[in-house]
Amino acid sequence: MLSSGAASSRVLLPLICLGLDLGLVLVAILAATGLRQSLPFLDGAQDVGVLVDSITGPIVVGWLAMLGLFGTYRSHALAAGTEAYRGVVNASIVFAGFVGIACYLFKVELSRGFFVMAFVIGIPLLVAGRLALRRGVHAARRRGLLRHRVLVAGDSAHIDEIATIMARESWLGYGVVGALRAHGQSDLEATATGVPYVGDAAEAADTALRVRADAIIVAGGAFRSSVELRRAQWALEDQHVAIIVAPSVTDVARERVAIRPVAGLPLVHVERPQGQAASRWAKRVFDLLGAGLLVLLLSPLLVFAAIVVKRHDGGPVLFRQVRVGRDGQRFAMLKFRSMVVDAEARLAELSAANQSDGLLFKVADDPRITAPGRWLRRYSVDELPQLFNVLRGDMSLVGPRPALPDEVSRYDTDVSRRLRVRPGITGLWQVSGRSDLSWEDTVRLDLYYVDNWSMLQDLLILARTVKAVVGSDGAY
After folding, report:
1. Domain that residue 174 falls in
2. Where is the Bacterial sugar transferase domain (predicted)?
3. For residues 134 and 85, what is the distance between their CA atoms, to the nearest angstrom?
4. Beta bridge mates, 242
5. Is 187 inside any structural domain?
6. SS3 of residue 322 by DSSP
7. Rounded to the nearest 10 degrees, what angle do helices 371-378 and 281-313 cross at?
8. SS3 324
């Protein structure tokens, strides 16, 4: 039997999505009709409404049916990943081609202006609807709603790793209710992090039914052979309990993973990390064009900030600090000065107030910050001079947080991978919480960026940066 959260996700969400699509398709058709009739330079506009009235029903039904055929109403597609968005775009394009062919074969005089505008308006609306629905689902799951009860089977280390990720990424909607012991672990009551064992992997089906689990996540070491896993699947054949296999690979973007079955064995292919690609000419050209354009657009704000800082106490407008860039090269990072002139000298007296759990220094109410410095930091205006660091080639628009030499001297081998690319004005660390993040999460996000870089990801981070800055999330 499915839990209430899983049942809602499997049944209610697709119905809500279908209703949302119905409304958006109707909006697109009405908008296209209105726009077509309002264009004075096209003939026959007065007849568009009559024809559209007669074909609206078939268009709506056909469009929604095509979306269904492309799997865009599957509950898992509504939760995460880009599958739903790609499905909406692909289904709409295929349906547009189908409508065009049908009108030609059956000699339907459909207005070309209406045809083009209906899909030009409708496709973005449908994608935006999916995005809004997904954000609503994620928000509900963070509040404990629409969640799946899951068991994790495997050795203790793998169980703890998966449970930690599920707790951290609560928007995924997986609540770990217990663990299944692997072979040879019969004496264990709980994992190192406290996940209780509620049964053995060999009795996975019976245990899942007893605790009303919606899914079993199979990690490394759960079963002694593929035969045992297959038998567990057979035992769950008539139950609504999903089997999810979690390979020992984390923090890898979907674009780098491909599953290719070979002789019945599903091999997971992981493409090499993209750190080197993040240093190629395409990213550099993007940085130069983007930074140059931003300097021009933001020049009034830059001048205003410089005047405010100078008039406050007469000290230097810019604060220059040595940071470590790509491949360990040092450079002078520029900022608008947001602290008192002797801020560096007063650092030692504040060491006891450090709120960071790692190598960073963070104080929420730092007494060294000046009055204008508070709003400069709140809206990240103090970071804008780094656009000139980007133009000089020291930094990138998007990248890991630029590190201090003292921090780098204490890096271990894993953390040192952050230095394989240029540091950025913004990055995953900033759009995911900024100063509110722990040191572990900051490193994890930076390493994820280095290993999974793509130009599309850079664009998405820049878009999310605007939202993070306006909301001043985690800024101090």
Report:
1. 148-248
2. 283-470
3. 11
4. 215
5. yes
6. strand
7. 160
8. strand
